[in-house]
Amino acid sequence: MSSAAEQEAVAEQHAADVGRGALASAVLNGTERAPAPAPRVWPGSSTPLGARYRVGPDGVAGTNFALWAGGAEAVELCLFDADGTELRVPLGELTHEIWHGFLPGVRPGQRYGYRVHGRWDPWTGARWNPAKLLLDPYARAVDGEFTLPPEVYGHVRDWPDQQVADTVRDDRDSAPFVPKGVVVHDDDDWSDDRRPKTPWSDSVIYELHVRGFTMRHPGIPEELRGTYAGLAHPAAIEHLTRLGVTAVELLPVHQFAHEDHLLRRGLTNHWGYNSIGYFAPHAGYAATGTDGQQVGEFKRMVRALHAAGIEVILDVVYNHTAEAGELGPTLSLKGIDNRAYYRLQSDARRYADYTGCGNTLHVVRPQVLRLITDSLRYWVTEMGVDGFRFDLAAALARSMHDVDMLSPFLAVISQDPVLRRVKLIAEPWDVGSGGYQVGAFPPLWTEWNDRYRDAVRDYWRGALPDVRDLGYRLSGSSDLYAWGGRRPYASVNFVTAHDGFTLRDLVSYHHKHNEANGEGNRDGTSDNRSWNCGAEGETADEGVNALRRRQLRNLLTTLLLSTGVPMLVAGDEMGRTQGGNNNAYCQDNETGWVDWSLLEEPAWRELFELTSRLIALRHRHPVLRRRAFFSGQPHAVHGLRDLAWFGADGAEMTEADWFAPTATLGMYLSGRDIPGRDERGEPVVDDSFLAVLHAGHRPVEFTLPGRPWAERYEVVVDTELEEQREEPGRIHRAGSTLVVPPRTVLLLRVR
Questions:
Q1: SS3 328
Q2: Exactly one of 427, 588, 606, 657 is catalytic; which is it?
Q3: 123: which DSSP letter?
Q4: Tens of pLDDT along 651-678?
Q5: For 336-356, what is each residue's pLDDT tens digit?
Q6: 8 catalytic per annotation
Q7: DSSP β-ladder status, 311-316 and 387-390
Q8: At how many degrees (to 10) do helices 450-460 and 542-561 cross?
Q9: Dihedrals φ, ψ of 66, to 5°?
Q10: CA-CA distance, 581 to 594, in Å (whole number)?
Q11: What is the C-alpha to C-alpha distance for residues 732 and 729, in angstroms, rounded to an integer?
């Protein structure tokens, strides 16, 4: 507790600060500092928001600045020279709560920010502080780093009594310590670009980090590693095309800031889930410069990927910002209109936190919804991207408190003529009450299916009590998605993601090993559903290592044979490890980067070849990428059921079989009974396949189903083998018995 004198001082400070907004006019009139030569300001336009270079009245070129600041008393536009000299320009025009003005002669490359004046009254959520330079939420490019010294906090960060620190205003100027927006001229019409427009059912997603994927690639010039240009390099694209993926899902590339607790430990936010600029490509990933060059570099990367037939999906973080809670920095929205942009508690000093990151954007409010949808449309129409994965999407679907699938955000997306045509992926949960919403998002949306992840992990580590859940996950999760016209591709199937163990670590570690993160190994989940195959971490035991490699083949084969949209994580196809760190968000080093030297080792090169072969198999066979759910019934006279399940005895499974403990499952996919037609209106006909999955630790005898299912079977994939044989494989008669080795997947083509 503070002393009585300290409490009295805080009260006096509060009383003074509530009325301090009256000083705004004096500041604008130059009575508190020497006036600088003011440029001519024309009224300009309130739309579009942001800084847009254009030709104004009388053919005069300049830049129009427009900022929504609903509760503000005054707004200053701040222009910066190369040496940091600041020129403050009052924006006197106000239209529908948008402050705007046109400055003749201001050209692309100009660095700028805003100072917004208003009341300082944290008790009511008002946190205006003109001493803090603010980033334009609509800035197309950002120059500089957020380093978070005390000056960038709106309150006195180091106030002795931390319980009231957020109420004491800090009047130090933050301009020397924060990045600036950059005016960018964007006249690209994308007329030379050809979007792949891959159907959802044909998609294979590859989640990667721009920096982590390219930093150690020997074929990328050193000066381009870690950048958009590095990802656009032929050496990077060649790996993607050899693998056969149809889309890259990029971890956040919006401009982001590092958290103070990481900077204090000498670490950074490597993943980037801490956005502060929703229109700006993160400047740290630019090889060509940060005075607007990052915009063109990003576009060239998108074009290069499109030319290779690869779509670009962005992982976007619209649920919270880098300004954190009441003790966080004042960088942009908090200083523009804190009460309008963020969800506050009944005690308006505090933030409603459905994200675990300190704040939650108030998406119900029109100006916040506009910010998000304007950003999304910008990345589609002007930056060329093909879709989005929404981090903690349930937070965006909340109305006033509860998750609501009729929320304004989802309603606006569903009717938007641009956004409803691109790929939309929800991470269908947040950390708030009622936030877990897997299977609940409406048509147009696909979802990360963590129930697929959990079932497949549990099956291969021997932790499933029966195979009921596995059957649903292998066949498209109809129990979750067969409603409202949704399709099997509503399920984005994954075994690993950026968050958690890599695939190799999943079979090498039972416990997380996050000590390098500096949080006492408390961070990251302890529910990994992993199995280390008998030894914790790296080992010289070849028996353990051989089992681990087989488990990797099993997991990848299961994923790529399942109905739905498979998602791989960069490096999993060649045995990437993070040394057991399951939360490497702050590891911008060898832990967080892809190790390309693994491809020089025969065992990991074989894993890559198997993954590539499975993806090619998926592309060739429509029975493996269905556009409609299985019915379990024939779709033609004298046809077979489109899906049938078999036990090890070769008999179709009964209801009781689904509830009985078993480690063996046979899944028959009929290529003669695929619903729908191709683009020419012809029936879709394919080979039929039998997949045999056996997770037991002992061999099992499996009887191959006889007529009418097949006469012969040809082995296509056998995960017992380190090196897969080329087709044609071994032929087996229907009705014969195979000895399936422990922990093996067999894929057999019906002949």
A1: coil
A2: 427
A3: G
A4: 999 999 999 999 999 999 999 878 877 7
A5: 999 999 999 999 999 999 999
A6: no
A7: parallel
A8: 140
A9: -145, 130
A10: 14
A11: 10
Q: Which long-range contacts (CB under 8 A, 24 or more apart) does 598-606 make?
A: 598/571, 598/574, 599/574, 601/575, 603/549, 603/575, 603/722, 604/574, 604/575, 605/574, 606/722, 606/723, 606/724
Average pLDDT over residues 25-49: 66
Task: Tell which residue, 217, 247, 244, has the closest CA to residue 233.
Answer: 217
For residue 3, pLDDT beyond 60? no
- Nearest 5°: phi and psi at 523? -80, 165
Exposed, middle or buried: residue 652 (CB in 10 Å: 0-12, 13-18, 19+)? middle
CA 614 to chain centre: 25
pLDDT value at residue 675: 80
Q: 86, 315, 391, 673: which is the annotated catalytic residue?
A: 391
User: Is residue 405 exposed (0-12), middle (13-18) or buried (19+ Cβ within 10 Å)?
Assistant: middle
Report whether 239 contacts 98 (CB < 8 A). Answer: no
Q: Summarize pLDDT for 516-558 with one digit per residue, the tens.
A: 999 999 999 999 999 999 999 999 999 999 999 999 999 999 9
With a CB cutoff of 8 Å and minimum separation 6, the contacts of 8 are none
How long, in residues, is the chain?
Answer: 751
Q: How much is the pLDDT for 35?
A: 52
- 198-209: per-residue pLDDT in tens? 999 999 999 999
Closest by CA to 666, choosing from 681, 652, 676, is 652
How far apart, in whole angstroms, are the C-alpha atoms of residue 402 and residue 434? 7
Q: Facing residues of 55 across strands? A: 61
Strands 491-493, 565-569: pairing kind: parallel
Task: Give the span between the Cα atoms of 328 and 391, in whole angstroms.
Answer: 21
Q: What is the mean pLDDT of residues 242-255?
A: 98
Q: How far is CA 219 from CA 238, 246, 285, in A?
A: 10, 22, 18
Strands 744-750 and 180-182: unpaired
pLDDT for residue 682? 84
Q: Residue 28 — very low, low, confident or very high, per pLDDT cuts 50/70/90? A: very low
DSSP-derived secondary structure for 654-677: PHHHHHS--SEEEEEE-TT---SB
- 3-state SS of 74-135 is EEEEEEECCCCCEEEEECCEEECCEEEEEEECCCCCCEEEEEEECCEEHHHCEECCCCCCEC
Cα separation of 20 and 118, whole Å?
8
Q: Is 58 an active-site residue? A: no
- Mean per-residue pLDDT for 63-84? 97
Tokens for 418, please give them. 């641009």
pTM above 0.85, yes or no: yes
